[in-house]
Specification:
Blueprint lengths: L12 H76 L6 H15 L3 E6 L4 E2 L5 E2 L12 E6 L4 E14 L2 E12 L2 H4 L10 E6 L4 E4 L2 E2 L16 E2 L5 H10 L3 E7 L2 E9 L5 E8 H49 L9 H14 L3 E9 L2 H8 L1 H19 L5 E6 L2 E8 L4 H14 L1 E3 L6 E3 L2 E6 L8 H14 L6 E3 L2 H22 L3 E10 L5 E12 L3 E3 L1 H11 L2 H21 L6 E5 L2 H4 L4 H12 L6 E6 H6 L1 H13 L3 E7 L5 H5 L6 E4 L12 H16 L3 E5 L4 H10 L3 E3 L9 H8 L4
Parallel strand pairs: 19-20, 22-24, 24-25, 25-26, 26-27, 27-28, 28-29
Antiparallel strand pairs: 1-2, 1-6, 2-3, 4-5, 5-6, 7-8, 7-13, 8-9, 10-11, 11-12, 12-13, 14-16, 14-19, 15-16, 17-18, 21-22, 21-29, 22-23
Helix pairs in contact: 1-5, 7-8, 13-15
């Protein structure tokens, strides 16, 4: 049926729209994803650059801090030495002696000043004169150093004593040494800063004690916070973050902008002190080393995003092009360029919706097209198909009509008509007259083909086009083989219903033994006796009575049930031969026809061998028949099967010889034992014509030359019997001698002496 050729699923417009939408979504997702990844990478690069800048500045600050700590360590060592010497003094010495000692130490160590702090936090200089406290002193538990700077940039090292030292009723809890001057310009000679960084030393309050190039003078109050007036901060930073960093001494790097200049603010507490190091650095001083790389990174990310976008767009374009090609393959025949069944179905559906025409669905068939391919070659066959569609079918179509290739040698047509269906038939007859002669424009060869049509005139449009084509195909198959056009009608519809009834009954009929095997004798023209028989199946239904093979065999061949009935016939033959042998009778050679469905299974003959083995009969009494058409269509396969049949000792015959196109050509390629001349040779109403006799005689003589036995079937006239005997035919089969008969009647005919 036409539906069998529909191998591709329909691709709906909704699905295509969805695919396009998904493609655009994919483009957006890829570009957005690339953009996000690029953004994240750039952000990571910036964060890494920020961390690198912080590291560079912190390294500079640590260098300054280290040098401050080095100076402080010197002062601490001096303080420790003085403390150790004081501890060796006699505790009863008067204050003048202590003062002289301290003054000597100041001179020896070349320190600017030395201060003593008693337990009441009173401060004394080296002259043991009471002075104002230089810094707020908090005694450190366990003792230890602390250091500060004064307004002159001098480093103050304070050494806390725990426990205190007691001399002449004076309990000393701390000694402060003031010696080294911190030179920030000297400390900040870092080449990469190019002299543009500004370093500050300040107290935790933000009060600047010393700064690069500018030193605090007198009571001048300069605070680092004042530098951030009229400044703006980058990112999530604010001025509060600056104040927090100053007061807490935490290490931070804060980007900000002042006077259109992008700057970094860095702060860090000096270890073991209340001092804070501050740095103000232009951002471009640090970012210049990364700027080229950063610009290249942005350019690369942008380029990669663009490339990815272009690549995806290109891939989608290629995919869309491929999908168009796939859709074309799904909707068009690659050989002829004609629409295929999928496209035919879709277009017919649209035409039914948009137009009000009466439509005829036509199934066009090229008869024996395989023979054309065999005779003229595949290229010629392809040319015929292309020319038939392009040169004949396309010009034949009118407005709102359509055609498609729906099978190897079949086309479907959707034709319009007014009121009379005869219009369609007349058009098709005229089309046939033109299209059956196709001339190759390249070689000039003229090819003759035979075209037949099956037609269905739908009364309603609610059925799908494939079902309509099926009915047109049924009209072609079940109609008159000699007719040009066969129309699907009530009789065919009733035949379909009848087939359905038979199909419902067939399995029960087999299990309930409603099938019977009839035998038709084969008569030897030399002896006049029956020497063989052909086994034929009959169906005796309890309701319908005897059902003839012509009614159910084509149905069984279509639905595959023929395999089961073939096995039933063969097993019945074997059982009868076994019984005849057991009864002492000489069985005839019994032939039976194997259908095409069997040979589709390469191992089918094993089943038949097992049946023969089960009944234990000699294989010389078995003859397998294959029709000429079956042999022609499956020559290579059947050649092997026939060889295998010969290997087990059975014989093989070609049935219906002469009904096909190339019987003579096949005889040299296939090793059969018997030729059965088709009854069409003897179907003339009167006596055989001289031409017919000449053809039949030639076939018999050819068979004799090839050492083949010959059987003529369908013989009903005495003159035919005499003619066949005269030309040397071996056997005849037909109503003239005996019709097919049940086994009991056959046994009475075959074994009259018994």
């Amino acid at each position: 049926m036409a539906r069998l050729y529909s191998k591709n699923k329909k691709i709906t417009s909704r699905r295509r729209t969805l695919l396009v939408a998904m493609s655009y979504v994919l483009i957006v997702v890829v570009i957005a994803g690339s953009g996000i990844l690029s953004f994240k990478y750039i952000n990571f690069f910036q964060q890494n650059m920020y961390a690198q800048n912080k590291f560079i500045i912190s390294e500079s600050a640590i260098s300054i801090e280290t040098q401050i700590e080095t100076l402080a360590t010197i002062n601490q060592n001096i303080a420790k030495h003085i403390v150790n010497r004081i501890q060796t003094l006699d505790k009863t010495e008067n204050i003048t002696e202590i003062k002289n000692y301290i003054q000597k130490e100041v001179d020896d160590w070349n320190i600017q000043e030395l201060y003593i702090i008693d337990e009441n936090k009173n401060w004394y200089n080296s002259m043991m004169e009471s002075v104002a406290p230089l810094v707020i002193f908090e005694q450190k538990e366990g003792g230890g150093p602390q250091f500060f700077t004064d307004q002159g940039g001098n480093l103050i090292s304070l050494f806390s004593l725990d426990p205190p030292i007691e001399i002449n009723n004076l309990r000393i809890v701390g000694i402060l040494v003031e010696k080294s001057h911190i030179d920030i310009p000297y400390l900040t000679q870092f080449k990469f800063l190019k002299g543009m960084a500004r370093f500050y030393i300040a107290e935790r309050s933000g009060k600047i004690i010393q700064k690069q190039n500018i030193q605090g003078q007198g009571d001048e109050q300069i605070y680092i916070q004042s530098f951030f007036e009229n400044s703006t901060f980058s990112g999530s930073y604010s001025r509060d973050d600056v104040n927090t960093a100053i007061y807490s001494g935490q290490e931070v790097l804060i980007p900000f902008k002042k006077n259109n200049e992008n700057l970094y603010f860095y702060s860090k507490a000096v270890h073991n002190s209340s001092l804070i190091l501050f740095t103000i650095v232009p951002q471009n001083l640090l970012t210049s080393r990364y700027q080229t790389l950063f610009s290249m990174t942005i350019a690369v990310c942008g380029t990669m995003t663009s490339i990815f976008g272009c690549l995806i767009i290109t891939l989608i374009c290629i995919k869309n092009k491929s999908e168009k090609q796939v859709r074309r393959l799904a909707f068009y025949d690659t050989l002829t360029g004609a629409p295929n069944l999928n496209k035919f179905e879709k277009t017919a559906e649209n035409l039914f919706k948009k137009t009000q025409h009466n439509y005829a669905v036509v199934y066009l068939n090229i008869k024996k097209f395989k023979f054309i391919n065999e005779k003229h070659g595949k290229e010629a066959g392809d040319y015929i198909l292309k020319s038939l569609y392009g040169d004949y079918i396309v010009p034949f179509l009118q407005d709102d009509e359509y055609a498609a290739r729906i099978g190897p040698d079949n086309f479907g047509l959707l034709l319009t008509y007014n009121d009379k269906t005869d219009q369609v038939i007349q058009r098709l007859v005229k089309f046939k007259e033109k299209a059956e002669k196709i001339q190759d424009k390249n070689t000039g060869c003229l090819y003759s083909i035979q075209i037949t049509f099956g037609i269905f005139f739908p009364k309603f449009r609610n059925s799908d086009i494939v079902s309509m084509l099926d009915k047109a195909h049924l009209a072609l198959k079940m109609g008159d083989e000699k007719a040009v056009c066969n129309v699907f009608n009530t009789a065919i519809n009733q035949k379909m219903l009848r087939d359905k009834i038979l199909e419902d009954k067939m399995r029960d009929a087999l299990t309930k033994s409603n099938f019977e095997v009839y035998y038709q004798p084969k008569i030897s023209l030399k002896t006049g006796k029956a020497t063989g028989a052909e086994a034929l199946i009959r169906w005796r239904d309890p309701e319908d009575g005897l059902i003839m093979p012509g009614e159910f065999i084509p149905l069984f061949e279509r639905n595959g049930f023929i395999i089961a009935t073939d096995l039933f016939v063969f097993e019945t033959i074997c059982a009868d031969i076994q019984r005849w042998l057991r009864e002492g009778k000489t069985p005839p050679v019994v032939s039976f026809n194997l259908s095409k469905a069997n040979i589709e299974n390469p191992q089918f003959l094993n089943t038949y061998k097992n049946i023969i083995h089960h009944y234990g009969i000699p294989t010389k009494y078995i003859e397998f028949e294959f029709t000429e058409t079956l042999m022609y269509d499956n020559l290579a396969i059947l050649s092997k099967i026939i060889d295998e049949i010969h290997d087990i000792g059975a014989t093989c015959s070609m049935d219906d010889f002469g009904s096909g196109y190339s019987s003579l050509n096949m005889l040299k390629n296939i090793n059969v034992d018997v030729l059965k001349l088709d009854k069409e040779f003897f179907n003339e109403e009167e006596t055989l014509s001289q031409k017919s006799k000449t053809v039949i005689k030639s076939v018999i003589e050819l068979a004799q030359e090839l050492n083949l036995h010959t059987i003529s079937e369908g013989i009903e006239k005495q003159e035919d019997v005499l003619f066949l005997k005269d030309i040397g035919c071996d056997f005849i089969q037909g109503y003239y001698f005996a019709k097919p008969m049940p086994v009991k009647e056959f046994e009475a005919f075959m074994f009259p002496d018994n």
